[in-house]
Each structure stands twice: as structure tokens, then as C-alpha cells.
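Lecture 7 notes: from sequence to structure.

We start with a single chain of 168 residues. Read the sequence below before looking at the structure.
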Amino acid sequence: MNEIDGPLFDAELDGSEIKIDRNPDLADRIHRLVSGQPFCILCTQGQSQPYGSLIAYAFTDDLKHFFFNTQIATRKFKLLNECRRVALVIDSRCQHMDDMTRVDAVTVTGKAEQIQRGPEYQQGAEKLKARHPYLADFLDSTSTALFRIDVVRYLHVTRFQELSQWIP
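Now the structure, written as C-alpha cells:
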């Protein structure tokens, strides 16, 4: 069990089986899905309450890290400082409105870390600016924080019920 991520869930309770997929095909499918969607839902928690936020994101080619930014004076920023364990939900539903069985989704779990201004901040900000040029001024603002998510695992779902796990 990964101390950052904790137990996945109790497969006996929900009847699901999780395949740990080491097939590079799965990594390619996840990469295509992540590349094809500009936004995702960031899932955070605070005071025993879950919270979801729509965010723009960028990621490293090896899928080990995601980057996003937020204003410092937000609930999102406060929650990220209370609990660094997060999840991202990315899906292709907008591309398959006529056939939901073709939708695939991934839940990315990991730990969010605020990046202080400096070389690493610049690298993450450049990745975000390349993917979302309209964020340039926002990223340069002193009222903005940049976060890096260190990925623990991906849970990929297809056809509403086929679940595979991939750990980068």
C-alpha cells in the first residue's frame, strides 16, 4: 500500500476487479486521453468535506506530474494547503455524446505540492502556457500559486465497468 495514496478501495464491497495493467498500450491510451482534454476536475478535501474544481492543466510526457495554477485567495488554495492528497478526473464524454459506452475516463491520484518561484516554477509555468496560452498573465501574477501533482496511480475505466490500474 502506498502511504500517499492509501488503500484503493474494497473490491469485495463493490464487486469490481482491478487489473494492474503493465501493458504499454494502457499508458498510450491514458496519454491520448490526457492530451485530448484541456480541462479536468481537481478533487480536494477539507474538514471531512470533498470539493471539486474545474482546472486547466499540463503534464509531463512520462505522465508522472501534472501542473495547474490557482489564485492564492481561493478555497481551492486553502484546501490544498490543508490536505495535499488529490485526485484528477479526466474523461472523453464530450467526444462521444451519442454513445456513452465509448467514453473512457481516468482518475489520477497523487500529492499536490506548491512550487515556489524559481526554475521549477518557470518550467511548470511554461508547460501550462504552451498548453493554455491565455493563462500567461495569470501565471505571472504574484497572486497566483502553481502546483505540481506527483502522480501515484491512474485508474482507467472503459465501457462503464472495465477498470485498469496503471502506475507510472
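The chain has a mean pLDDT of 85. Keep this in mind for problem set 3.
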